[in-house]
Amino acid sequence: MAEGKKRIAIKALKIIGGLFALLVVGLGVLAFTFDTPRPEGTPGPEAEAMAESMLEALDADAWARTGAARWTFPGGTSHLWDRRRNLAQVTTGEDVVLVDLATRKGVVVKGDEADADALVANAYARWANDSFWLAAPYKIMDPGTARAVVVTDDGERGLLVSYSSGGVTPGDAYLWLTDDTGRPRAWRMWVSNIPIGGLEFGWGPFEKTASGAYLASEHAGAVPLTLTDVEATTTLSELTGGDDPFAPLVARGK
């Protein structure tokens, strides 16, 4: 009996080893097929004009007037963003965390208080990533960014935006490709948390929200990414019905 169990265990290990080898080979094939070096591009007036044109096509003024946004990221993490006070509510599974985005400090509304520091840090990291997929087009002229014009292999002119600060992964870069309206249709990514450079994801179609800002929930790509329950309003009360979910954080002085 023991010998039989031993043979089964060895067979299972061989299967796992084979699957791991296939995974490694598969990742290698993906990297070989899709990985491209980050382009340099040409900074200057044309790049700045491209950025300004893109923001105008998206009605950046409406985004500036947007006081609150709500959405759910793939995997089930839900966000409520109070843009006026720079606060976020992040709900992941049973955990509900309020975060002051300026200080990265927060309050655990629901979850293990003994693990509060880790929950707050995780909530901020999730917000930083997930909000970028919501509103990245509006952040192309943020402090710490640099812009350059890149001509792709097929002759298309794109806007390369590099981030030297901000979020949790400074140093990342994104090449924006636009449609005839001037709004983004796709971006290509060179980011520290994805080993394959130049992966392309779609942006659009854009939809006009209640605040007047244009947001895209669909991001087609090798692994499609779709945001759900996307809303943006001028005031927080329009999303919450007048309640202030951030009261526990405000009461603690953030």
Q: In words, what does this structure look like?
A:
This protein is an alpha+beta fold and 254 residues long. The protein has one domain. The protein is 32% helix and 30% strand. It is built from 6 helices and 15 strands. The protein has helices at 2-34, 45-57, 60-65, 116-135, 237-240, 247-251, and strands at 68-72, 78-82, 87-92, 95-100, 105-110, 145-151, 157-163, 173-178, 184-190, 199-202, 206-208, 214-216, 218-219, 225-226, 228-233. The strands form 4 sheets. The chain has a 6-stranded antiparallel β-sheet, covered by helices on one side. It is globular, with a radius of gyration of 22 Å. The model is unreliable at 8-32 (pLDDT under 50).
Entry summary:
The chain has one domain (45-251). With 254 residues, it is α+β, with helices and mostly antiparallel strands. It has helices at residues 2-34, 45-57, 60-65, 116-135, 237-240, 247-251, and strands spanning 68-72, 78-82, 87-92, 95-100, 105-110, 145-151, 157-163, 173-178, 184-190, 199-202, 206-208, 214-216, 218-219, 225-226, 228-233.
